[in-house]
């Protein structure tokens, strides 16, 4: 008797092709025009800079407080 797995358990070789644009160009390495990328980068930096200046919401502080206290206890081992 052979020890082969059932057919449904056997792995089949599956190849995947990346999608292509209408022009046939591969979508593997999407790129943006340099001006668009620079503008997007500026806007993201400005957005995240504002978030860093905003106060931490009280609800999040309540969640973090017990975790922070537990960390202090664990650090003292």
From TrEMBL:
Residues 39-70 form the Anti-sigma factor NepR domain. Residues 11-29 have a biased composition (Polar residues). This is Anti-sigma factor NepR domain-containing protein. Residues 1-31 are annotated as: Disordered. InterPro entries: NepR. Pfam families: NepR (PF18557).
